[in-house]
Amino acid sequence: MADWGEDGWAVAAGSGSRVDQGPHWLEVLLRGRDVGGSMGAFVFDHDKIPENPPHAHLAFMKILYVLDGRYEFRVGNAELSAEPGTLLVVPRGSYHAFTTSTGGRVLFVCSPSGNEEMFLEMGHLGTGATPDQTAAVAARFQTVSLSGEAGRAWKAAC
Questions:
Q1: Which of 106, 109, 99, 28 shows the shortest CA–CA distance to 62?
Q2: E-state strands within the chain
Q3: Distances in Å between the alpha carbon of 73 and those of 6, 61, 97, 156?
Q4: Angstrom distance (rounded) from CA 132 to CA 28
Q5: CB within 8 Å of 27: residues ≥ 6 apart
Q6: Fold (CATH) for 17-141
Q7: Would you kindly state where each structural domain of the chain is located, as residue ranges?
Q8: Which neighbouring-strand residues pair with 49?
Q9: d(CA 26, CA 107)
Q10: Nearest to 71 by CA among 62, 81, 63
Q11: Is 148 helix (H, G, I), strand (E, B) or coil?
Q12: What is the strand order of the sheet 17-21 is part of?
């Protein structure tokens, strides 16, 4: 008989940790602290996002799976369109941004964990957080922005 190890678990819809981000919100489904830091997962519910500044995560990679809506992504120099069922890989350290003209929902999985904890901390700050407060959280999770002209908010070409 095989040794199957630890029992798994399920997270029912709506039973994760909700984080409000103004017109957007996310539900953290899996925290790294619960799986030895190997990964984190959350579903992000977006309102329309016409532009978004590029940023990179130096401590983790991300996989995004579009559940609802239409998105335009930029990862490095690649520009990609995505609709429900599209899987997108964002390598660790790659600058990326996305927009959506429809709003939608995306499942984010990061490895190792970190992205979910960053959003939980941002949620504790609330929507009235100062730029210095959000910059401190981003720095703690090794999330960096481009400076100057390259760091301007990205808009997908129509």
A1: 109
A2: 17-21, 24-30, 40-46, 55-57, 61-69, 71-75, 78-82, 87-90, 96-99, 104-111, 143-145
A3: 37, 15, 6, 8
A4: 24
A5: 14, 16, 17, 18, 19, 42, 43, 45
A6: Jelly Rolls (2.60.120)
A7: 17-141
A8: 100
A9: 10
A10: 81
A11: helix
A12: 17-21, 24-30, 40-46, 104-111, 61-69, 87-90
**What is the distance, to the nearest Å, from the Cα of residue 10 to the centroid of all Cα atoms in its chain?**
21
Statement: the pTM of the whole predicted model exceeds 0.85 = yes
Single-letter code of the amino acid located at 28: V
Single-letter code of the amino acid located at 95: Y
The helix (H) or strand (E) run that includes residue 137 is helix 131-140
Alpha carbons 30 and 146: distance in angstroms, whole number = 29
Nearest Cα residue to 121 out of 134, 111, 107, 108: 134
Token pair of 22, please? 């103004």
Per-residue pLDDT of the chain (158 residues; tens, 9 = 90+): 356 567 888 888 888 988 887 788 889 999 999 999 999 999 999 999 999 989 999 999 999 999 999 999 999 999 999 999 999 999 999 999 999 999 999 999 999 999 999 889 888 888 888 999 999 999 999 999 887 777 777 786 65
